[in-house]
């Protein structure tokens, strides 16, 4: 019944095509008849009414043609005075289309002789391939879509009939031949749509057959050959890059289908490696030639092998251990670097590669970073990315380009992110890494490396240098806090909480770091240092005032005696001393706003330290005595803020009287030399 249905479908399609062609022939005949009647009407006009020589020539030609027709009629034995209209002949284009349609439908005759359906479909696909190649000639160009439609219809018929068994290879051979012809038609012909559509239909048919019968076999080989040919033809010309991208997507779809089929544990590894290496090989061939125009080929040539190695490692197919996967990514990084060098050698400058440089450089950097991270402990990730940022800065010094500066900034931000993530491992109770190692590898070393990178990146990459400097400063602050935490917790931060004095020590260190940054920012004019100085000052003062509020609540009473050898008033005295240093420096450098805020915070924390000292000693006669003295200390601190002259060194600095300076006038060049009276000039 299926065969009868296919025969009926083929006959319906053929009859429909013939009916459309016959209708077209009728229309052409009617058009010829109308033109002939027009010529006869023009010939009936009297000669004296003809005004131009062109009309006379047309009438003479018409008379000669009628005489020739009458002669031919008489020779055939007809005596009619008026010849009948001749039947219109077929146009050559119509004849070619009819011939192509008949050729594509001819394999259906094999069904009447009980020929194997795969053989019939394969023969039809070969005919479609031949038609696609014949359409390269200008006279047969209109038959290109006939090959596409016919090949797609026969491939669909083969899939619906369930081609399989011993004749599957024959069907797959037909698919490959038709796809190859379509790709050749797309490469050599204009337009490229019919050939590319034929190749796409054949690839879809091969993938569908592989999903039904399994890609491990002839269907998988056919699909792989079609994808390889499409990738190669797409990379050969810029106008066919979309075919190359389609082949890349098709390769990913084929690997996805293969991964869920039986036997994938054996064949997935070679298939993935083959796909990745094929696209990488195409990139090695075409990217050096294309240069800045080879972005798409470079992207597919780097993404495909990286995806292959990642899939193999994740699925434990060939790359079971991290060291094996790291070796694979390191090899890819070396290949990408070689490809970048080959592409840059054909350009005058490295920057002439434009986005191709970004694709190859990002792939090489990402592969190298992945290889290092696979075999590096987690707390050392910030150090790894800091080293990569330093390497990017060094490359920018040798070959200046925005890519290297952007890479350095990206690596610095990644190092900062991993450093923030390592803070949890520093405080974790069941962490496999010692706290000292975490403090050294996650905070101290990255801060030092980022600082060195920022020093070298200031001239050629100011934005990247600013980001590196910010990461170095924040990393240094985190390192100070980490080592302070280790010192107060006796090397076991997970076992001891943050005490009252320790919070004051952290705040004091941040305030001292902010003062150093502010002093250096005032000399060099660095906005990053100035901004982070304000941020660290706010953090230190905020922590101190939060501790003050918690002590007054009192929420921190239990932590005042932990550990016992620490004097609790130091929790307020240490940040107060740092803030007094702020006040002295900013007042000396004529920064009234910072000096005033520093004085206010220092006076309040000093009053809090005095009050806590009085309460802590508790050797007064009455219980209200230390409270009264503490209230007096806070009152004095509040009153001192209204004393004039606290923010600047000099009183009424902006109200100084102008001074008079005697400056002798400059005589003109041609004036005789003589003594002039001194003049008075007003200056500030």
Describe this structure in words.
The protein has 684 residues and is an all-alpha fold. It is built from 22 helices and two strands. It has helices at residues 2-43, 53-75, 92-105, 117-134, 144-160, 168-188, 193-213, 218-236, 241-259, 264-290, 295-314, 322-345, 355-374, 381-398, 402-427, 435-457, 462-488, 500-524, 527-552, 570-588, 592-617, 624-640; strands spanning 659-663, 679-683. Strands 1-2 form a two-stranded antiparallel sheet. The radius of gyration is 44 Å and the shape is elongated. It starts with a helix and ends with a strand. 38% of the residues are buried.
Low-confidence stretches: 1-6, 78-87, 555-562, 651-661, 674-684
Which shape, going by the Cα principal axes?
elongated
How far the N terminus sits from the C terminus, by CA atoms, comes to 111 Å
Q: Main beta sheet: strand number and arrangement?
A: 2 strands, antiparallel
- Helix content percent band: over 70%
Order of helices and strands: HHHHHHHHHHHHHHHHHHHHHHEE
**Overall strand count:** 2
Class by alpha and beta content: mainly alpha
Question: What share of the residues does DSSP label as strand, in percent?
Answer: under 5%
The helix count comes to: 22
For this structure, the quaternary state is single chain
Break the fold down into its secondary structure elements and pairings.
Layout: H1 2-43, H2 53-75, H3 92-105, H4 117-134, H5 144-160, H6 168-188, H7 193-213, H8 218-236, H9 241-259, H10 264-290, H11 295-314, H12 322-345, H13 355-374, H14 381-398, H15 402-427, H16 435-457, H17 462-488, H18 500-524, H19 527-552, H20 570-588, H21 592-617, H22 624-640, E1 659-663, E2 679-683
């Amino acid at each position: 019944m299926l065969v009868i249905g296919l025969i009926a479908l083929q006959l319906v399609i053929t009859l429909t095509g013939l009916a459309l062609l016959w209708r077209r022939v009728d229309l052409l005949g009617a058009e010829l008849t109308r033109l002939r009647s027009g010529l006869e009407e023009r010939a009936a006009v009297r000669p004296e009414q003809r005004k131009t020589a062109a009309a006379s020539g047309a009438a003479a030609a018409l008379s000669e043609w009628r005489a020739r027709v009458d002669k031919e009629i008489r020779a055939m034995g007809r005596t009619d005075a008026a010849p009948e209209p001749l039947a219109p002949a077929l146009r050559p284009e119509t004849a070619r289309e009819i011939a192509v349609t008949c050729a594509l439908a001819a394999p259906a005759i094999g069904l009447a002789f009980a020929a194997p359906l795969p053989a019939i479909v394969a023969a039809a696909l070969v005919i479609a391939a031949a038609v696609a190649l014949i359409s390269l000639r200008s006279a047969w160009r209109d038959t290109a879509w006939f090959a596409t439609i016919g090949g797609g219809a026969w491939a669909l018929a083969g899939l619906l009939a369930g081609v399989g068994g011993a004749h599957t290879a024959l069907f797959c051979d037909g698919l490959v031949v038709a796809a190859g012809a379509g790709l050749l038609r797309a490469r050599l012909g204009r337009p490229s749509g019919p050939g590319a559509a034929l190749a796409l239909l054949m690839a879809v048919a091969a993938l569908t057959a592989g999903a039904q019968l399994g890609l491990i076999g002839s269907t998988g080989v056919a699909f792989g050959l079609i994808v390889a040919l499409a990738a190669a033809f797409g990379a050969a010309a810029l106008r066919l890059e979309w075919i190359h991208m389609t082949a890349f997507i098709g390769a990913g779809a084929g690997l996805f289908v293969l991964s869920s089929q039986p036997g994938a544990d054996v064949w997935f590894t070679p298939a993935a490696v083959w796909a990745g290496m094929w696209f990488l090989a195409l990139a090695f061939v075409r990217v050096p030639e294309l240069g800045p125009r080879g972005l798409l080929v470079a992207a597919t040539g780097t993404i495909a092998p990286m995806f292959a190695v990642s899939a193999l490692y994740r699925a434990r197919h060939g790359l079971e251990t991290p060291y094996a996967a790291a070796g694979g990514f390191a090899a890819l990084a070396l290949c990408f670097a070689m490809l970048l060098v080959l592409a840059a050698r054909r350009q005058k400058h490295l920057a002439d590669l434009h986005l191709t440089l970004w694709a190859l450089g990002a792939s090489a950097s990402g592969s190298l970073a992945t290889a290092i991270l696979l075999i590096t402990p987690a707390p050392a990730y910030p150090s790894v990315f800091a080293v990569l940022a330093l390497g990017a800065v060094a490359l920018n010094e040798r070959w200046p380009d925005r890519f290297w500066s952007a890479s350095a900034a990206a690596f610095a931000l990644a190092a900062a992110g991993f450093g923030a993530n390592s803070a949890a491992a520093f405080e974790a109770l069941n962490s496999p890494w010692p706290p000292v190692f975490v403090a050294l590898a996650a905070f101290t070393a990255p801060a030092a490396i980022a600082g060195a990178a920022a020093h070298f990146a200031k001239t050629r990459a100011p934005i990247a240098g600013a980001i590196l400097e910010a990461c170095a400063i924040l990393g240094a602050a985190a390192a100070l806090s980490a080592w302070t935490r280790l010192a107060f917790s006796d090397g076991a931060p997970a076992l001891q909480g943050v005490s009252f004095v320790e919070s004051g020590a952290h705040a004091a260190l941040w305030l001292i770091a902010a003062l150093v940054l502010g002093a250096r920012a005032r000399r060099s004019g660095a906005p990053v240092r100035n901004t982070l100085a304000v941020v660290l000052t706010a953090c230190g003062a905020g922590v101190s005032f939060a501790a003050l509020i918690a002590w007054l609540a009192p929420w921190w009473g239990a932590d005042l005696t932990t550990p016992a050898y620490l004097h609790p008033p130091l929790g307020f005295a240490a940040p107060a001393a740092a803030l007094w240093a702020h006040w002295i420096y900013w007042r000396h450098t004529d920064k009234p706003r910072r000096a005033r805020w520093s004085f206010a915070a220092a006076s309040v924390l000093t009053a809090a330290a005095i009050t806590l000292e009085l309460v802590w000693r508790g050797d007064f006669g009455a219980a209200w005595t230390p409270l009264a003295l503490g209230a007096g200390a806070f009152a004095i601190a509040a009153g001192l803020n209204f004393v004039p002259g606290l923010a600047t060194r000099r009183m009424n600095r902006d109200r100084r009287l102008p001074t008079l300076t005697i400056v002798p006038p400059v005589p003109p060049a041609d004036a005789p030399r003589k003594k002039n009276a001194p003049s008075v000039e007003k200056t500030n």
